[in-house]
Amino acid sequence: MPLPGISRRTVLAATAAGTALAATGLATAPAALAATPPTLPNGTSADKVLVVGMDGLRHDRIDAANAPALKSLMANGTYGRSLLYANPMAATSSGPGWSTISTGVWPDKHGVKDNTFTGKNYGRYPGFLARLAQVRPQLSLFAAVDWPELDTHGTVTPGADAKLVYDNDYAVNDAVITDLTEQVLRDQNPDVLFVYFGETDEIGHNHGAASQKYLDAIAVQDGYLGRLLAAIKARPTYASERWTVLVTTDHGHTDAGGHGGSAIEERRTFVLAQGPGIAAGARPIDTRLVDVAPTVFRQLGIVPDPSWGLDGKPVQERTTDPFDTLQSSLAGRVDETGIPAGVLGFTRTPPSGWSVIDNAMGTGGVSEWRGWSFATDEFWSRSQRDQWRELNVRARGVFAVADSDEWADKSFSGTYDSTLVTPAYPVSGASAVTLGFTTLYRQEGAQTARILASFNGGTPTVVKSYTADVLSQVQTVTVPVPAGASSVGFRFHYTGSNNWYWTVDGVTVTTS
Ligand SMILES: [Zn+2]
Fold this sequence. Notes:
Layout: H1 8-16, H2 31-35, E1 47-54, H3 68-76, E2 78-83, H4 94-103, H5 107-110, H6 128-135, E3 141-145, H7 149-152, E4 162-165, H8 170-187, E5 192-197, H9 199-207, H10 212-233, E6 242-248, H11 264-267, E7 268-274, H12 292-299, E8 346-347, E9 355-357, E10 363-364, E11 373-376, H13 377-382, E12 398-403, H14 404-407, E13 412-413, E14 416-421, E15 425-426, E16 432-442, E17 448-455, E18 461-466, E19 470-480, E20 487-496, E21 501-511
Parallel strand pairs: 1-5, 1-6, 3-4, 3-5
Antiparallel strand pairs: 2-7, 6-7, 8-11, 9-14, 10-13, 11-12, 12-21, 14-20, 15-20, 16-19, 16-21, 17-18, 17-20
The chain binds zinc ion.
């Protein structure tokens, strides 16, 4: 909002002194709230969590910024970078981004696809403060936002015992939020706090993420973060408290400024966490934006009920996905000239115990995708934008992919026909075996995708076929175990002729 007749610097100075706030035109909070923070109920937990949301903070610009607080958290904490969805699942916009962070589920569950918030389903998938208020009402919960939509639409603030809500004059109100949150941390006893800053996004829009002004905005916001961290450490009771600090963002920005689309720079997000049980210096490849809320729950000793339907997991928890063991052997592009040479993200060598049968596979084509490959989200989705590869949100780290569309982008003969074969798993004494995995499957034409099971190395039989799109879902296939069987192996058999693709990740096999 405009501030006629008053310079930004003057307003900031006045704000720091706790005066002149009425002049900032606070949209939804009475001016009286600004000078002194609200009074919270006294906290009850020695486990405490501060979540700081920085809007539109492109993580690959932090290195170049004067950002000692963020860099300290990176050195002493776990820093997981990943990519967002894109349309048609949801735009890389703040509504979907903060909804994903707050609820711990992807847009196909929380329902927010853009900044209209149309379709929001916070009743079924509430934000983590609302959930905490339900399951542990004795916690003292605080929220501060200056993108007021996060309050008016119920994304973040429901459940908070006290909240600060300002309009989106971020240059002023980010500082106000810092002042007042600092006081809350110093003088009161909150248990869980969500604090939002918006100026990085504003500067990104106005000047681009490649600008010095964007770096300067990161530095300012880092200074706010540093003040909150200092206020935590200065608490008289700090020695007996166990604090976790999380920093995250809702989307990236293009170099020229802007987001909402499917460019890799718009899709960049991160989760940064420091606290008890969270490894220092870790850079996991299996962290995604849905992991913020589950990390908050874990740090408070709360085990989410399966009925909550969370998509995330705590940042300190690693997947046991065998495909992720391929991380160190990933290579750069061969034929995919649209992918920058420095992006190491694919291999056609399966993990130990797995194999790929390509004896019916055609020849030539794009070598990255000649038969089942193993790739990262960034590498695979950069092969071609806006063909729904961005929707592979329930894959983490390295996943398996069969893509007849990309394979056919270079001279080839024959058809795409490839089979991914799992190791043999023991099933002795079990009555049924269940194959679990996540998948993104896009159907076209005569393309086929089938799962086969083989007991004791016998002839594989089809146990599941796909004939329609499956847009990022968890799948389970349960098969009876024949009498006397001692092992089962599964096969993922895909055929296509310049059709679409099939991804498989997070394979689990359990017996009952
Ligand atoms: Zn924005």
